[in-house]
Amino acid sequence: MAPTTTTTNQHTHALLPLLPPELRNEIYAYVSDPAPRTAASGSSFALPFQQKVFTHPRISTTTIILAQSGAGNGLLALSRYAVAEAAEYRSWLLAHGLEVRIRVVFCADLRMWRLEDWKKQMQTHLRKLVKGYGFLASVRRWSVEVVWEPVGSGLADRNAKKMPGVGDVVPGLVECLLGVRDGLAREKGRVEVVLGLGERVGVDAVLGQKTVGLAGFLEGLAGLEGVVTGVVKVGVMEVVGWKDGKAEGLAKELTKGDSFRGDFVLGCLEECGVKKEG
After folding, report:
1. Which of 44, 194, 203, 211 could disulfide-link 50, Cβ–Cβ 3.0 to 4.6 Å?
2. How far apart are the first and last CA of the chain?
3. Are 112 and 151 in contact, with CB atoms under 8 Å apart?
């Protein structure tokens, strides 16, 4: 990979003038490494945009956040002092150190909603976004969270009316949102998909003795390109993790009959083919 370089002039000065570009790039990679930090770390400081919000009334609200996954704000801030490495680091970030975080709050009435209609609208938004910010297509780290809040929880009379469930809808949403990635980002990229289930969904599932459709959700993850991990959450509780084609139970110390939430979580584990320990 060709090293990042910066041309200095009389109006700029360098902090590391004796280091070759290859070593400076190593420093930028270290500063941007998200491994030692939490998933919520990083910021949009000094990036081309912080967030874009696309609202489809009574259907969904999609928020796209551009973030650097590391902790290089201090270096970026030096751009105001005409430090050459600040501009060089920003160029490096746009090429190698960004993360796209997407949150979709899905609140449609599944009796009338159609995935293909949503995809057409969202693809139009995404094409315009990529046209304005061409580097987005090459970003390799993507995180997509879908908060599942359809009208009536999406479970009532599902079998009788053949209404789609989580497994029918969420994989299509995620696939559409990731569709702007270029070939290298698809092949080498890393994707985290988080499915958030609300309390109302849980109560309806337990009272109606209905499944949510999590098996289909996990099958959808397996069809995505790149290194994919998944998490199913009930409220703020992480219930199921998915990695390398296998589901793992994350919820502990649950007993059937303790509460609606406990029964729902156990039902989610069962849907995902995870046996409760103990």
Report:
1. 44
2. 50
3. no
CB atoms within 10 A of CB 220: 23
Asked if residues 58 and 112 have their Cβ atoms less than 8 Å apart, the reply is no
**Strand, helix or coil at 152?**
helix
| Radius of gyration of the CA atoms of the chain, in A | 22
Q: Among residues 217, 219, 213, which one has the least CA distance to residue 267?
A: 213
Q: Which residue has the tokens 């289909």?
A: 216
Going from the C-alpha of 161 to that of each of 112, 165, 206, the distances in angstroms are 11, 11, 19
pTM of the model: 0.85
The predicted-structure confidence for 196-254, as pLDDT tens digits, reads as follows 998 788 888 888 888 889 999 999 999 999 999 999 999 889 999 999 999 999 987 66
- DSSP E strands: which ranges in the chain? 51-56, 60-68, 98-106, 141-148, 190-197, 227-234, 237-243, 246-249
Domain locations along the chain? 50-69+99-271
**Backbone phi, psi, residue 67, to 5°:** -140, 155
User: What are φ and ψ of residue 130, in 5° steps?
Assistant: -70, -30
Contact 106, 130 (CB under 8 A): no
pLDDT in tens, 48-87: 888 999 999 999 999 999 987 665 778 888 888 889 888 8
Other CB atoms within 10 A of residue 145 CB: 18
- Looking up tokens 């559409």 gives 176
Q: What angle do CA 11, 68, 89 make, to 5 degrees?
A: 25
Q: How many residues are recorded in the chain?
A: 278
3-class DSSP state for residue 151?
helix
